[in-house]
Specification:
Largest sheet of chain B: 8 strands, mixed
CATH architecture of the domain at 2-219 in chain A: 3-Layer(aba) Sandwich
Order of helices and strands of chain B: EEEHEEHEHHHEHEHEEHHHEE
Radius of gyration of chain A: 21 Å
CATH architecture of the domain at 10-93 and 173-317 in chain B: 3-Layer(aba) Sandwich
Shape of chain B: globular
Strand content of chain B: 15-25%
Number of helices of chain A: 11
Structural class of chain B: alpha/beta
Structural class of chain A: alpha/beta
CATH superfamily of the domain at 2-219 in chain A: P-loop containing nucleotide triphosphate hydrolases
CATH class of the domain at 2-219 in chain A: Alpha Beta
CATH superfamily of the domain at 10-93 and 173-317 in chain B: P-loop containing nucleotide triphosphate hydrolases
CATH topology of the domain at 10-93 and 173-317 in chain B: Rossmann fold
CATH topology of the domain at 2-219 in chain A: Rossmann fold
Strand order of the largest sheet of chain B: 6-7-8-3-9-10-12-11
Oligomer: heterodimer
Helix content of chain A: 25-40%
Number of strands of chain B: 12
Largest sheet of chain A: 8 strands, mixed
Distance between the termini of chain A: 35 Å
Largest interface: A-B, 47 and 41 residues
Radius of gyration of chain B: 21 Å
Distance between the termini of chain B: 42 Å
CATH class of the domain at 10-93 and 173-317 in chain B: Alpha Beta
Amino acid sequence: MLQIRGLSVSFATASGPLAVTRDVSFSIAPGERLGVVGESGCGKTVTGLSILGLLPRKSTTVSGEILFEGRDLNRLGPEPMRAIRGREIGMIFQEPMTALDPVFTIGEQISEAYRSHFPVGRAQARERAIDSLAQVGIPLPARRFDEYPHQLSGGMRQRVMIAMALICEPKLLIADEPTTALDVTVQAQITDLLLELSQNAGTALMFITHDLGVVAEVCTRMITMYAGEVVEDAPIDAALLKPRHPYTSGLLRSLPRLAKRKSLLPSIPGRVPLPSAMPTGCRFLERCGYAQSGCKSDQPLAEIEPGRLARCSRAADIELPGATA
Amino acid sequence: MTAPAETPLLEVRDLKIHFATRDLGITVKAVDGVSFDVMSGETFGIIGESGSGKTTLGRALVSLLKPTAGHIRHEGVELGGLSTEALRQARRHYQIVFQDPSAALNPRQTILASVCEPLEIQGGLSRDEREARAIEALSRVGIAREYVRRYPHMLSGGQKQRVNIARVLTLRPRLIVCDEVVAALDVSIRGDVLNLFAELQRDFGLTYVFITHDLSVVAHVSDRVAVTYLGRFVELGPTEAVSDRPMHPYTEALMSAEPIALPSAMRTGKRIVLEGEIPSPIDPPSGCRFRTRCPHARELCEQKEPEWRELREGHWVACHFATPDGPPLASTH
């Protein structure tokens, strides 16, 4: 359904173009739930925004293909893109308070999302909006319809965002850290809801997060991003148990939950290279415990076994610890 | 962990911290009746969601906030009763590190100047002595000498948090309140910073109060854990017991809600999804504060506030129906 090929994004800066992602390729099948994990600055949010055509056109260069049901979104003009965004591809962001307009009722905002894609009257859109509020588990939806965002709690606001994203029944939902700002008991409600809605409606999900636990619960496949590149792409259980890229392995091992209490926590030494000073060859080299001389050359994202890719020339001959190690 | 000393390092009794809003005549009961001891050399974890009062509590523990009612004694002394000068001398022993490592540092000051500042406030040392002590503290937390003349923006988040730790270390504190100290850091460097805290505790015999919303962090570092809900403790006990065999229904739900990075087939235990969200501390529910979200709530829970009971040795719970075997059994809910 969605196929990203060789996507590179760079921002124009005073000192010339700054490459933020390079050669990002992956695909999402209908109904599939793909987790995109990585730490701050790895390019996961930019990748999501570029699919939606939401990066500022003037100051951003996007090269590569974003094929959505055969059409290259990267070549689409603003007008046809608007017809797809919100309709075919829905989106939810981290902070529901900034994504909602404080001066309109939530009902007006959800109805507007629907009416911008379907030629229906106010009354009909209202009905539809109330239905979708009920669908995301908002109690007394008809009453909530007339409330303003500030009258709702954080969890309820995120439910509103989900209702708004799903009202047009998109084929793909891009969710960027949708539970990061929420408390853990509320996060559990929202991940359960997303999972249920995606399963019932067959909506594909691109779930961007830094939280490997959430990915494990929601997704069927995961890609790991590091320093603007996809470094691993694998079915979820395989990625968690037997990661094939040292960075994925390092992330899993640094989770305190999986370590013995009070034991020394494994961590990844060093820090992510800056976009302005990206090394050639493997971008993880400096921080990698498995580095060899061959790692200094460019590392392609290569298939190691059917359905599994890794950007590591050593992937075939090293055994990496996963979540249970 | 060193053996607990006789007198607790911290003694908190019936502590209440209320905030009155000026215009609306409303009182926010951020902390509303909390009692506990922290023993010397231990790590005491406080876990809770937003609005539970954990940050307010942490600030009160280092005298940044005054109790509305109740007592906090540091090694037997109530800091609130001290003169300004005596308080200044005493509070050096009780320090706090905050969540956002950038916000805690002055962007216009070098790292060295920031780390020297607490010593300047304390007085008594020459400039050279202060700098020497700051450099020593910085090197202790892994900030090399060539960094000390740099500004905060030239450092990574993890390095900045190390600087903040060095800053309180210069005062040679006995207690450090750590308020969400790794929440703003990336996963791959969290481990490093947590390891550093553990190392400093071992080397300097420090006592920590570790405040966090992150179950995995609190479970990893703490000897004992208290679970907060709406300004009160609902459970307190040894970390393993609280996380593996909780007695309060809220703790049980909280533990089960934590997403774990394991394949679904390997995740044990049933997820308990609570309904709704934490109510407002302005108008907490009558009786048990958790009853509005509790799957086991009965009439009694609405009428009567549960007592704080020690059901297992050193393991306390505030629930009418909890037993030493665990939370109340699943009702017809």
